[in-house]
Amino acid sequence: MNRKVEIVKDIFRFIYYYPFRYLVGVLPFTLSYLMIKTLGGIGFNFAKKKEFAYSLEARRLFPDKGDDEIRSIAKQTLLNFLQNEIETLMFPKINKDNIDWFIEYAGLENLDEALKQQRGVILLFAHFGANQMVMPAIGYKGYKMSQLGAPATVWTEKEQVSYIKKKNMEIKWRHEQTLPVTHINVFGSLKEAFLCLKRNEILGVAIDGGGGKEWVEVEFFGKRALYSTGAIDIALRTQAVILPTFMVRKPDSRHTMIIEKPLICPEGADKLQTIKNYTASFVEALQSYVVKYPWHYIYYLAWRNMIALKGDDVPYFKD
After folding, report:
1. Rounded to an integer, what distance in angstroms lies between the CA atom of residue 276 and that of residue 278?
2. Could you report the per-residue pLDDT of 245-267, keeping only the tens digit for each?
3. Per residue in 185-227, pLDDT tens?
4. 292 Rama class: left (phi>0) / alpha (psi -120 to 50) / beta
5. d(Cα 19, Cα 203) in Å, to the nearest integer?
6. Are 231 and 121 in contact (CB under 8 A)?
């Protein structure tokens, strides 16, 4: 990357993670959201590379939409991403007393019924919307939850980054560790993931991550997409109940967390086919949410595309 560009980015990173972070720490939540949305709305007019990347993914999913609608989706994508990011700065301030301000729950009874089966529960989600808010939403309601994922600092270990970016990722990871869940590094031992299910606790897993050893090919918006077999494989091996979960941001920046009924699919001719059946069923639900709220998912598709082009990950789409 151009040295001057990297220096400019470091200046913005420093401002965001130091003075801006402290400001978020003292402002009411509503003002923090308003501030980031205002800045994002102004910044979108100058962020042409981001607009191009988001528009490219929006057109891939919605080829029949016009230019104005695609641009609107691209703008909403940026605003949603910025709100997701500012929430990581809020994590130390979120607690059991204010979690209901952030989250409206739909389907919490599905979680309670699933736990009664004493088989452990997997909350299965995608990098859709503010998926990280699942952790405080569940943990601050008194449930015992573990989250299988990659620490924020993993990206500073996989590639050379500036000193400022490295410090930023360390701060982000410290904030994530304030959440009331047990973090399990997806690149390490998965023993604790199995043990938490054995204890009839909750395991949060994103099915659409870029890491994994085996993949199944499933149709998403009429295109061939790749999903790791890991999440469903854990569920099949432990007989845990799978609950598809989606976090939808409302116009006032807060969220509705939707926990759907258990995912139940027919067995295939072999284990891989069974995994594919479950994955396809979840992806069908994911697609219905993306149709309604495309800006909740376009950022992730653009990010995966960028990583794949660098050769650091498998591509999301096979086509």
Report:
1. 5
2. 999 999 999 999 999 999 999 88
3. 998 999 999 999 999 999 999 999 887 889 999 999 999 999 9
4. alpha
5. 35
6. no
State yes or no: pLDDT of 63 exceeds 90: yes
> What Å distances lie between residue 222 and 56, 127, 217, 225, 284, CA to CA?
16, 19, 12, 9, 11
Strand order in the sheet with 241-249: 103-106, 255-259, 241-249, 121-125, 202-206, 145-149, 182-185
Q: Are strands 121-125 and 103-106 parallel, antiparallel or unpaired?
A: unpaired
Residue type, 290: V
162 Cβ partners below 8 Å, 6+ apart?
Answer: 6, 9, 10
Q: What distance in Å separates the CA atoms of residue 215 and residue 148, rounded to the nearest whole number? A: 18
Task: State in Å, rounded, how far the first CA of the chain is from the last one.
Answer: 28
Structure tokens at 307: 């990583």
CA distance 11 to 130: 26
pLDDT at position 205: 97
106 backbone dihedrals φ, ψ, rounded to 5°: -135, 115
pLDDT confidence tier of residue 177, bands split at 50, 70 and 90: very high
Q: How far apart are CA 280 and CA 283, in angstroms?
A: 5
DSSP states along 287-299? HHHHHH-GGGTHH
Average pLDDT over residues 75-91: 98
- DSSP line for 84-115: HHHHHHHGGG--TTTHHHHEEEESHHHHHHHH
Q: Distance between CA 244 and CA 132 in Å, rounded? A: 15
Q: Are 206 and 125 in contact (CB under 8 A)?
A: yes
